[in-house]
Amino acid sequence: MKRKTYPTDLSNEHFTALETMLPPPELLGRKRSVNLREIINALCYMLRSGCQWRLLPPEFPKWQTVYYYFRKWRNAEWFVELNHQLRKRVRLKAGKESDPSAAIIDSQSAKTDEQGVVRGYDAGKKVKGRKRHILVDTLGLLLTVKVLTADIQDRDGAKQLMKSIKEQMPRLYLIWADGGYRGKLIKWVLVNYLWILEIVKRSDDLKGFQVLPKRWIVERTFSWLNRNRRLSKDYERELTSSEAWIYFSMSILMLKRLKT
Questions:
Q1: Residues with Cβ < 8 Å from 192, sequence gap 6 or more?
Q2: Is the N or C terminus of the chain more exposed, i.e. has fewer CB atoms within 10 Å?
Q3: What's the DSSP call for residue 51?
Q4: Largest Cα–Cα distance of the chain, in whole Å?
Q5: DSSP letters spanning 146-195
Q6: Tens digit of pLDDT for each residue in 21-35?
Q7: Could you give the domains of the chain?
């Protein structure tokens, strides 16, 4: 019997493109019986709707099974690799090199619920929770993300973010940032990575909203992420789970962009 469909379900075309990038089955142990397409559809539903694991509709596999695969893929960094592969394909389709030469960095503070035991207080934004530090290319596609407690300053978060991507971006040489990254970080980035950190300043003469060159790109990426209710707050117990949902969100966005 065909199950009830949801708007978040992947089409045949989208899943066919994704299927070749799915982790292979284990060589040892019991043969896999679950349909991985249903696992992906369940994760897409949770991402967009923001529902709890135990509230997953019965049309999908049991929530324990879906969570098992989410945790397994998170620990194996499959979500990171999926984002990496799809980003290269989208860039090539757009007529660009597979690896970027320029990027934009920024952060976003997000509230947590009572399960988010690892959290801090962002005095500037007056938010108690966590801070998402992201680096994107000039198309707004995610290069890397680091979720930390909200009390960590942007400059300190940027250092941890850049350490995680040093070997993956051979062409990168220029990073745009806002005034929160000025100061000693500029020299630190140049000395350690030979990258130029360029601060895009807001004009003091203008009042109200102002679109700033390059910085609007990363703000648009945050708006893409915020379309998903799972990311409207940080509901995760572990920081790695928060990062996994962000990678998965951008992967689904790129997958649909490739097949439209």
A1: 162
A2: N
A3: -
A4: 67
A5: EEEETTS-HHHHHHHHHHTTTTT-TT--EEEE-GGG-SHHHHHHHHHH--
A6: 998 877 777 777 899
A7: 12-75 (no CATH), 98-235 (3.30.420.10)
Distances (CA, A) of 119 to 109, 129, 152, 174: 11, 5, 10, 31
Residue 34 one-letter amino acid = V
pTM score > 0.90 for this model? yes
Number of Cβ within a 10 Å radius of residue 90: 19
Q: Which residues contact 64 (CB under 8 A, 6 or more apart)?
A: none
- For tokens 């994704």, the residue is 18
Strand, coil or helix: what is 137? coil
Q: 35 vs 22, 66, 83, 140, CA distance in Å?
A: 12, 11, 22, 32
**122 CB-contact burial (10 Å; exposed 0-12 / middle 13-18 / buried 19+):** buried
